[in-house]
Amino acid sequence: MQITITGQHLDLTEALKNHAEDKIGKLDRHFDQVIDARVVLKHAPHENPENTADVTLHASGHVFHAVSQHADMYRALDLVTEKLEGQVHSYKEKRQDRRNDNPSGLAAIVEME
């Protein structure tokens, strides 16, 4: 997975880049079809909370997007990663349910009779 990290009104430190790569990279083990990730870290001192993490994941057949705000940029990255993990988990469950062998709808009623 290719991860692109950019900062708006923010100097990206190596520690911040490494934290973002570690957190977003962990999503790849939950869902191996991720092609690339774009992370935008924003600092807006006139807003409260002033730090925003915006992440977009491009996977084969689907795009995941999440935004999180917090006073601490590291915590904002943690929160956005949790949101994306939830989205990926929900997407995987939905795909699994559609391929499930258990009958549903009218087919289930017919078999029960």
Automatic annotation (TrEMBL):
Gene3D superfamilies: Ribosome hibernation promotion factor-like. Pfam families: Ribosomal_S30AE. Residues 90-101 have a biased composition (Basic and acidic residues). It comes from the Bacteria. Residues 90-113 are annotated as: Disordered. Keywords: Translation regulation. InterPro entries: HPF/YfiA_ribosome-assoc, RHF-like, RHF/RaiA. Associates exclusively with 100S ribosomes, which are dimers of 70S ribosomes. This is Ribosome hibernation promoting factor. It comes from Acidithiobacillus concretivorus. The gene is raiA.
